[in-house]
Amino acid sequence: MAPGRVNRDGGRALATFSALLEPKRMESRAFGAGGPPVPAVGQGTWKMERDDPAEAIAALRQGLELGLTHVDTAEMYGMGEVEELLSRALEGRRDRVFLVSKVLPQNASFAGTVKSCESSLRRLGTDRLDCYLLHWPGPHPFGETLRAFQQLQQEGKIRSYGVSNFDADDLEAAVALAGPGKIACNQVPYHLRDRDIEEALVARCQALGVAVVGYSPFGAGEFPAANSAGGKALRAIARERGVSPYAVALRFLLREPGTFVIPKASSARHVEENAAAGDLQLSAEDVQRLDAAFPPG
Prior knowledge:
Helices cover about 40% and strands about 15% of the residues. The chain contains eleven helices and nine strands. The protein has helices at about 15-20, 55-65, 80-90, 110-125, 140-155, 170-180, 200-210, 230-240, 245-255, 270-275, 285-295, and strands spanning about 30, 35-40, 70, 100-105, 130-135, 160-165, 185-190, 210-215, 260. The strands form two sheets. The protein has a seven-stranded parallel sheet with strand order 3-4-5-6-7-8-9. It has a two-stranded antiparallel sheet with strand order 1-2. Helix 4 (about 110-125) crosses helix 5 (about 140-155) and helix 8 (about 230-240) packs antiparallel against helix 11.
């Protein structure tokens, strides 16, 4: 989105870039059953090892200043390189951040989970994670991973634990093993062109007290083109609201309670656009227009 310009007659454009920099409120929600308040819009770091390190660090820090203090990473990302980069971005800022990382399924035996967590902590330069996730179901029984999560929690190395890429059946089984209110979140793909989780998974998470964290909320590089039907709907609402289409997309995905999004941004400008979703309000008509433009399934 280009910065707004002042017209020659003195009139102001609908949205100036400075307005984008000033979200009045960053909405927070309980992270799981009885969990702490966490910003609904966070920051993802998948593939950040491909970005210019200085620009990525600047973008992450800008996000923190704008209230995007829910930061997600994983040992898989750049095989630890992103966690090391993130440690530089969080230097002197760790206590302001809700920090999440993940263990790879092949490492998720009891001993492997403990080892992976300790390695992530070293790379991140911290003594604890706010939430630690199993990246997706894998070869090791979830009971082994859970036992490691529980030990790490008792030792103060993680404050909570959850899962990622679990379908409704996997999630039910995990909650049955862990007990009610123990699985903090389920991190899953969620964007305008992939709304499959709305069919059953979101409702199951809500019933079980599990937060839904949507990753790749812009479709992993496939954000709707400006000249597509969906893109036109997004941009029309964005113009009316004085924000970017990215902010509109994020706000649509946040319309259900207990839902979070972790968009990645490798530039300060993009993170500012994402942060504008924090206090954006969509009307019922806006939601209907987007629902029609991006139908489920």
